[in-house]
Amino acid sequence: MCRQLQIASLILLFLGSASAQAFDNQRQAFIAGLGIGYHGTDLDFSHAGSATETDNVAGIATSVRLGFGLSNQFTLYYLSEGNWFNHDGGTWSLGLNGIGAAYYFSPRARSAYLHYGYGYSYSSLSRESGTDSSKFGNGYILGAGYEFMPHVNLEASYLRTNLADAIDSPYPVRSANWRLMLNYLFY
């Protein structure tokens, strides 16, 4: 229910800002970004005093960013980075929600950029699995991209999560995720 409320709030914020004519083809204003891509993830199920248990998975990666451009080269935003994959017969989501920033090397399109984000990480099973709980911790994302035409960019990133309360549970304690994304940034 909480996740559905967050998604509904983000959609209302996006629709409300579109009518305020915030989209003027300048990054120096309200920005909203959506992305989809591919991820390869190493899951670490290690528990204290046991041997390392790891697994590799792959699947769909998603990205949502809402924020503000302080200039045409520097943006700050709320980010929600998610990875979706099948593991042990269930559909899992793993990702990061937090604060991010990007620096564009040029104020116009056809610009390379770097981005960073830090926040709380999560891992959860789908509702169909019968498990309704999620595990939380902290994490970060580092990435580089290239805006090859206005609003559209290709991005590669590394997402690292650490779930503090995942010991003695079916959830991975840590994950390392490589992501390749195609993003559209509304500005």
Write the layout of secondary structure elements.
Layout: H1 2-18, E1 30-44, E2 54-69, E3 74-87, E4 90-104, E5 111-125, E6 134-149, E7 152-162, E8 174-186
Antiparallel strand pairs: 1-2, 1-8, 2-3, 3-4, 4-5, 5-6, 6-7, 7-8
Task: Characterise the protein shown here.
This protein has an eight-stranded antiparallel β-barrel with strand order 1-2-3-4-5-6-7-8. With 187 residues, the protein is mainly beta. Strand 4 and strand 5 form a beta hairpin. It is elongated, with a radius of gyration of 17 Å. It has a single domain, classed as Beta Barrel (Porin), CATH 2.40.160.20. It has one helix and eight strands; from the N terminus they run H-E-E-E-E-E-E-E-E. Helices cover 9% and strands 61% of the residues.
What would a concise description of this structure say?
By secondary structure, the chain is mainly beta. It contains 1 helix and 8 strands.
**Per the principal axes of the C-alpha atoms, what is the gross shape?**
elongated
Strand order of the largest sheet: 1-2-3-4-5-6-7-8
State the helix count: 1
CATH class annotation = Mainly Beta
Q: What Rg do the Cα atoms give?
A: 17 Å
Judged by helices, strands and strand pairing, the structural class is: mainly beta
Low-confidence stretches: none
Total individual domains: 1
CATH architecture annotation: Beta Barrel
Major sheet details: 8 strands, antiparallel, barrel
Distance between the termini: 30 Å
Per CATH, what is the topology? Porin
Share of helical residues: under 10%
Number of strands: 8
Mean pLDDT: 85
Question: Strand fraction band?
Answer: over 45%
The H-and-E topology, N to C, reads as HEEEEEEEE
